[in-house]
Amino acid sequence: MKKAIVASVASMLLLNSSLFADMKADTKALVEETVKYCKSVSKDECFKAINSSKFIKGELFIFAFDYEAVGVANGKIPKLIGKKLWNLKNPDGVYVFREQVKTAKKPDGGWFQYKWKKPDGSPIMKLSFIKDVDGTFYVGSGMTVK
Fold first, then answer.
1. Is the dihedral of CA 115, 135, 62, 77 positive or negative?
2. What is the CATH number of the domain that holds 24?
3. Strand ranges (DSSP E) for the chain?
4. How far apart are CA 59 and CA 103, in angstroms?
5. Average pLDDT per block of 10 residues along the chain, 146 residues long
6. Coil/strand/helix, residue 119
């Protein structure tokens, strides 16, 4: 009986880690696809595409900010467009967008984990992949970490 339970738990953990790895790969691929597209068109066309459903895959969507943390495009939360979020702290006191800017400035972008508030105000953990597009703005996409 104990062996069956241990095997079942181990199987669930393996499945969850496999799903997590797949979700990370999907998140990064969406960001890379967006960067490639945005480098091939004007900023206006890039932002229009991000604001449309072009870069929405399931729960994943693209957000874009300039390096002063002003929202320039967002696939699911349009109210962030035009908002300067440089001084926004998460529930842990972390300046989320300052950290995103640091991550975006790395040569190949990178991952950033942080707490975020859901629309109802409850906190959730997010893991986002962030990458520079042209030195004036970056794009990213995040997944909920359970």
1. positive
2. 3.30.450.20
3. 56-57, 60-61, 63-66, 71-74, 110-117, 123-132, 137-145
4. 22
5. 45 58 94 98 98 93 98 95 96 94 96 88 92 98 89
6. coil
- Rounded to whole angstroms, the Cα distance separating 84 from 128 reads 19
What is the extent of the structural domain holding 11? 2-145
Nearest to 35 by CA among 120, 126, 141: 141
Tell me the whole-structure pTM to 2 decimals: 0.85
| Cβ contacts of 108 within 8 Å, gap of 6 or more | 131
What total of structural domains would you count in the chain? 1
Instruction: Spell out the residues 6+ positions from residue 112 whose beta carbon is closer than 8 angstroms to its own.
Output: 99, 100, 103, 127, 128, 129, 130, 140
pLDDT of residue 28: 97
Residue 8, pLDDT score? 42
The predicted pLDDT at position 38 comes to 98
Helix-strand-coil percent breakdown of the chain, rounded to 5? Answer: 40, 30, 30
Structure tokens at 134: 């042209």
